[in-house]
Amino acid sequence: MGYPENLLSSRSIIKQGLYALISPEGLVNNSVPGFENSYVSILGSPRLGASFVDYIITMYEGGHNQERGFGGDANVETFLYVVEGEVKVTVEDKEYNFTEGGYIYCPPGTKMYMKNVKKGDSKIFLYKQKYKELEGQEKPWLVTGNANDMEEEPYGGVKEMRIRDLLPSDLAFDMNFHILTFDPGAGHPFIETHVQEHGAYLLSGEGLYNLDNDWVTVKKDDYIFMGPYVQQACYAVGREKLTYVYSKDCNRDADL
Ligand code: UGY
Ligand code: MN
Fold this sequence. Notes:
By secondary structure, the chain is mostly beta strands. Helix content is 0%, strand content 52%. The protein has two domains: 28-147, Jelly Rolls; 149-249, Jelly Rolls (Sandwich). The strands form three sheets. Strands 3, 4, 5, 6, 7, 8, 9, 10 and 11 form a nine-stranded antiparallel sheet that branches. It has an eight-stranded antiparallel sheet with strand order 1-2-18-15-20-14-13-12, with no helix packed on it. It is globular.
């Protein structure tokens, strides 16, 4: 950093409650109790109009959240995805080691503790949300996996656009995390308009994204918040595959 070499500018776009594009250059460190030796940035949050909170966290060598822990409230569910590096997560005295693509979902009332175990930085995408119970339905359970071990399925019959579902499609779960992959030149089959919200973190590539019928350029390490009903779709541009991991609420009726 230091004195800027050019006029100050930003690719970020903030439209409260509608959509937001947050580019990595503008991120600042938010002091969140429990995270040590880490650079924590809160992305989507209720202040932006989201019903969840997303974070992107760079854990420096030795960085951790091993004393206070994350989540654990009776009605709060959490999710952690390793974007880069290697992270050890401890839940109820059980240890899990996650490399890039590794993830864990913790059901309400379950706290997770984490530590960067790589020589160097690790980067995690973290999420929390209030769990919505369903009468007569059992509670969700702890889920772990690695996206790199999962098969991709064509999305809506388009083989150049594929999806991986990271959580079970069981009514116990009120949301899911997915990864979408677009081959260069591929795009959504139509512009979606739906009640569900998304918080999306771009893992690779470049794209042109339609948000509320504005076309904006996006790339690796950008974060996109899509509010309820906002028009959304993209084309992958450039030479690399465009991929992003994102949350989507599911399996619940709309509240009156
Ligand atoms: O699952 C989805 O709604 C997804 N196709 N949305 C999106 O990519 N913006
Ligand atoms: Mn969508």
